[in-house]
Amino acid sequence: MSVGLHSRFGRAVGAVLAIAALVGAACEDPAIRLSYRPAVGTRTSYELRVNTSSLTRLDGEPRQSRDDSFVLRSDQRVRSARPGDDAQVTVRLSGEGQTPRDFVVRLDRAGQLATVETVQGVPNASLGNLGISELLPSAAGALPQYALRPGDRWRISQRLRIGGAPAGRLVGWGRLASLGVSGGTKQAMVDTEVALPVDRTTTGDAGGTIRLEGAVRTVMHVTQRVNDGVVLGARARSVGRYKVTLSPPTIDGGPAVNGTLTVIVSSTTKAR
Phi, psi (5° rounding) for residue 133? Predict the structure, then answer.
């Protein structure tokens, strides 16, 4: 074989091997296992831009509507995280003109929210119209324990506790929308749609009670780091529809007033 022919043959073999390598890489299993496993001490800060609107209709009263927009900062720190156990995360929500609100939450390995505890005497009601997606976007994915490929879906079913009291069962579905790389960081884009039933009674400013019965539905698109499940950004829209019952302070205070309440919360979360 001449030198020229040998050289051409070598280049041909090299080309074939290169093509085979590319084909092999393309055929690699793209399945990944996503889980929430940040190291103890991990700190993350987010900017939350929130828009809320509410519409209240009470029997015999003109309807009332309200729209608000505000920016919050969420500072989070992983306090504890043991293999196979829940991660305990401290969360501080703060914003201009607002009193900071501190929470301690527990997330399981799937990133599902197990409990929301209050600290420094902050009452549960201080959450206001904010939901799970605004308090802790990491909790909305409810990641399964098996490997996923883009397009795979899974069911979500999780009992929640807020301040030690049962808060209903979060149900819905999740989907691994896509995988990507940005700035050398492997990322997973996860879509979720969940619903949480609400049956809550609180005391009104003038006494009496206010009962809300209904459900809040949330749609989210979350970007997470593949290596530890930490959220890099999120978009969410929650719609709560409730039946309202206003009861007077005493039995002789008059009949209860019934109505409806609709609350819509849209938020964008961005890592700082």
Answer: -65, -35
